[in-house]
Q: What sequence folds into this?
């Protein structure tokens, strides 16, 4: 019952690195890798305890509202354990690689701090047993993605890319949030265990499922929210490898797998998962075929492969999709690390300037080829087995069109991957390059990943009696035909891979690019469309970004004009009021005072005439008074 | 016999003339003279009443005698004052002696 | 009046008529001179008229059987006080052209006051009915006057002398001036 420590220890490493990074400098890498390694051991232990029969458990009651209460707990099931192992192994290897890649960076320790934070968030996401905790960590990985994409924020393009990633995934997250709300208000539960209880199809839950898929679309860069992933390549290559190839983008696929019960009960939502995945995969593959940036080709490849996984899940192949998730993580991480190794040595990313690197970078080159073979689906490498599962599953569940699209995608995948290989590693160098092999700290992870890329697929192959499938999906298999190997599909997929590789060889090795040039000249329009990524970014810019900016400008004008105007008007009113008051004070109040004084003065002016100073006047008055008194006395009586 | 009221009327007239003189004369000595007139009017009154009402021990006349003495004393003092004022203010006209004016 | 009566006994006129015939002119003259005292422009003339008024009043005293007082009046008033007045006038006259009398307005005011006083007094006089005591008892001869002055009214007598002394001293002090 130690699973909850798995995300806690990398978080501790993050805190240490953030607070003391400046002091410990290079030691921060050690801290981070140690933490990751400990998490790896704990993941193995958890895996073992799962095999022994221990399952999910709750940690504590967090919030209580009304009759329901939110418990924080840990989910320990096959899917989570598999993901934990994948994430921790790849994470540790990539962090070791980063020691070499980020060696000269001034913010070395901060990089590892962010890496640890990411590991912590990802692992927490995998272990969450309810939507709320999942959402917390979902945001966490989004944050780390932003921080790491714009790690070199002095470059404007990197800062913009970080923002783009965050905002685009946010759009997906909104859908996810609404979906969670619907689930909570209708089913009164946010725990994943409660989702299996939703077996009766309800249009409300269909909507909820689709909205949850929205979140997956954002995080896993499916169409139409895929635009952030290519730009995210502005970040350091280890970041691209870890986050945008192996782990974070897999979080979307994990989410769909986690809610699979909900999706299964609502077939309309599930089939949309497949449609979106299919569209995305063929779409991204076509773009990758004409792109000239080494990292961007790999980015579009990631998008395409994630679409492939969605196809697998969408046709009901829970084990197929998750199998491909696992194998893809390894060979995609390897591909990115190789690309990073090349970029690190020659400081260039445009493949038109490369060529013949294999001579000088033997280890990198070899592992690169191995990874490409894996991704192209060449047996017996790992990719072959997982792709084959998806292909046969799609055929088996009665979606021939999806099967054909997937086939086409596989062909294209093989084509563009080997285009990359031939252009970068082989042939004559096209510009002044000085490649040199990377240090051991970088090449050893490459080698280890290569071993995984070769052999990991075997756990799901018929040679091991489909151990993976039975492991990942306990209980009766979804199809009663069992998982008998479909030799036709195997043959077809191998053929597709061979075709792709041959085409690449033809185009780029034999005729030295005369043929591609001819094609380009013939299909200029199509080429431009593909080269410019179907102008999606431009469309978004026009449809969404410009109006948003205009709206925000309007709001700002409103704020300064109306609201500030109101405040200023208030102030002016107060000033006017005070002027009136001062006028009142000066003229009316003082006037009253002065008037009183004036009246007194007037009276005195009149009355002082009595004091004439002449005795005779006084006597006069005295005599008159006397006469008056006597007169009154006489009258009175 | 002359009736009593005639004497009284006489003294009243004399008194009124004296009052008129006090209020009218500008010369301070003139005012003093009018005061003498008033005193004399009072004397006539006294003696009249003394005679007609019957004065034991000649009260009426004795009273009048005293009044004469007093009047003399007051006239003396008054005239002394007038001389003193004349010495200081160089005038005895009361319309010039208005130091108590506002 | 008894002596005069005896004198007039021999004449053919009755006592009463004679008294009456002579009283009213004397009274009128007295009043006339008094009027002139207050109305005359020159202060000298006023003093002379004052003297005549006082003599007239002495005459009226005779009609009231106050012979002693009449003589005292003439001696003291006319003899001493009027002389004093004349002396003071001599000492304080300035030869200026200012009119002696007050302004017309003041005269009217004064006249009004005097008239008011007179009206009141006459009203009182006519209103009351005067007791008339025994005429006999009214006759006071000089012997009795002297005797009562020394016995019953000795105190006022002494006081009068004190007052005179005070007046004397006072006037000397006032008249002395400041410069000594």
A:
């Amino acid at each position: 019952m130690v699973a909850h420590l798995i995300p806690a220890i990398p978080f501790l490493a993050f805190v240490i690195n953030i607070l003391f990074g400046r002091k410990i400098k290079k030691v921060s890498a050690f801290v981070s890798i140690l933490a990751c390694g400990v998490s790896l051991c704990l993941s193995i232990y958890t895996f073992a305890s799962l095999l022994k029969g221990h399952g999910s458990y709750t940690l504590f009651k967090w919030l209580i509202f009304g009759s329901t209460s939110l418990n924080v707990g840990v989910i320990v099931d096959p899917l989570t354990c598999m993901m934990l192992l994948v994430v921790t192994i790849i994470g540790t290897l990539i962090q070791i690689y980063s020691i070499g890649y980020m060696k000269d960076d001034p913010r070395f320790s901060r990089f590892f701090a962010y890496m640890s934070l990411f590991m912590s968030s990802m692992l927490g996401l995998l272990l969450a047993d309810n939507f709320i905790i999942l959402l917390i960590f979902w945001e966490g990985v989004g944050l780390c993605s932003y921080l790491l994409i714009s790690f070199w924020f002095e470059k404007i393009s990197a800062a913009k890319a970080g923002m783009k990633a965050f905002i685009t995934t946010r759009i997906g997250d909104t859908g996810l949030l609404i979906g969670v709300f619907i689930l909570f208000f209708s089913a009164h539960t946010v725990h994943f265990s409660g989702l299996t209880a939703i077996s009766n199809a309800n249009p409300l839950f269909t909507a909820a499922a689709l909205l949850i898929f929205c979140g997956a679309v954002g995080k896993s860069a499916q169409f139409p929210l895929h635009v952030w992933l290519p730009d995210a390549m502005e970040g350091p290559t280890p970041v691209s490898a870890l986050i945008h190839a192996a782990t974070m983008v897999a979080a979307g696929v994990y989410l769909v797998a986690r809610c699979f019960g909900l999706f299964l009960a609502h077939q309309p939502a599930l089939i949309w998962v497949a449609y979106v995945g299919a569209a995305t995969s063929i779409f991204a593959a076509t773009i990758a075929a004409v792109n000239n940036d080494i990292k961007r080709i790999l980015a579009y490849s990631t998008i395409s492969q994630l679409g492939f996984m969605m196809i697998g899940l969408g046709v009901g192949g829970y084990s197929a999709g998750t199998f491909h998730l696992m194998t893809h993580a390894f060979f995609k991480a390897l591909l990115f690390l190789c690309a990073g190794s090349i970029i690190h040595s020659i400081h260039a990313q445009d493949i038109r300037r490369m060529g013949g690197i294999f001579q000088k970078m033997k280890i990198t080159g070899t592992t690169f080829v191995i990874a490409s073979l894996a991704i192209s689906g060449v047996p017996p490498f790992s990719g072959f087995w997982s792709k084959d599962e998806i292909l046969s599953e799609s055929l088996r569940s009665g979606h021939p069109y999806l099967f054909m699209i997937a086939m086409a995608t596989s062909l294209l995948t093989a084509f563009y991957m080997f285009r990359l290989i031939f252009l970068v590693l082989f042939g004559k160098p096209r510009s002044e390059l000085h490649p040199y092999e990377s240090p051991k700290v970088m090449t050893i992870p490459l080698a280890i990943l290569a071993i995984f890329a070769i052999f990991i697929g075997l756990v799901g192959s018929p040679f091991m009696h489909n151990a993976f499938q039975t492991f990942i999906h306990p209980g009766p298999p979804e199809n009663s035909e069992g998982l008998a190997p479909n030799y036709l599909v195997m043959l077809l997929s191998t053929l597709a891979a061979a075709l792709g590789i041959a085409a690449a060889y033809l185009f780029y090795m034999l005729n030295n690019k005369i043929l591609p040039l001819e094609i380009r000249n013939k299909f200029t329009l199509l080429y431009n469309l593909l080269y410019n990524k179907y102008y999606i970014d431009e469309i978004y810019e026009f449809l969404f970004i410009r109006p948003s900016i205009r709206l925000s400008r309007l709001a700002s004008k409103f704020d300064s004009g109306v609201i500030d105007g109101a405040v200023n008007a208030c102030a002016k009113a107060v000033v006017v009021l005070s002027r009136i008051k001062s006028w009142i004070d000066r003229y009316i109040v003082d006037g009253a005072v002065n008037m009183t004084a004036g009246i007194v003065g007037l009276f005195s002016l009149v009355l002082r005439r009595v004091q004439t100073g002449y005795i005779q006047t006084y006597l006069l008055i005295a005599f008159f008074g006397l006469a008056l008194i006597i007169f009154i006395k006489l009258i009175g009586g | 016999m002359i009736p009593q009221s005639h004497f009284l009327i006489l003294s009243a007239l004399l008194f009124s003339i004296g009052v008129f003189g006090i209020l009218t004369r500008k010369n301070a000595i003139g005012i003093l003279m009018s005061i003498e007139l008033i005193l004399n009017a009072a004397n006539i009154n006294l003696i009249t009443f003394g005679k007609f009402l019957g004065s034991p021990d000649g009260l009426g006349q004795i009273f009048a005698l005293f009044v004469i003495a007093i009047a003399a004393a007051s006239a003396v003092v008054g005239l002394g004052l007038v001389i003193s004022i004349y010495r200081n203010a160089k005038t005895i006209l009361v319309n010039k002696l208005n130091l108590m004016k506002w | 009046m008894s002596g005069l009566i005896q004198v007039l006994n021999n004449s053919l006129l009755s006592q009463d008529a004679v008294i009456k015939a002579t009283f009213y002119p004397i009274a009128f003259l007295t009043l006339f001179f008094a009027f002139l005292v207050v109305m005359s422009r020159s202060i000298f003339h006023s003093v002379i008229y004052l003297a005549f008024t006082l003599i007239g009043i002495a005459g009226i005293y005779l009609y009231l059987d106050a012979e002693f007082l009449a003589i005292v009046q003439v001696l003291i008033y006319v003899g001493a006080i009027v002389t004093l007045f004349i002396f003071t006038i001599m000492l304080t006259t300035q030869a200026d052209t200012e009119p002696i009398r007050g302004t017309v307005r003041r005269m009217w005011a004064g006249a009004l006051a005097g008239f008011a006083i007179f009206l009141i007094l006459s009203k009182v006089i006519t209103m009351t009915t005067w007791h008339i005591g025994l005429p006999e008892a009214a006759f006071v001869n000089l012997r009795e006057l002297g005797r009562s002055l020394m016995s019953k009214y000795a105190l006022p007598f002494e006081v009068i002398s004190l007052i005179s002394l005070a007046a004397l001293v006072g006037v000397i002090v006032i008249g002395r001036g400041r410069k000594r």
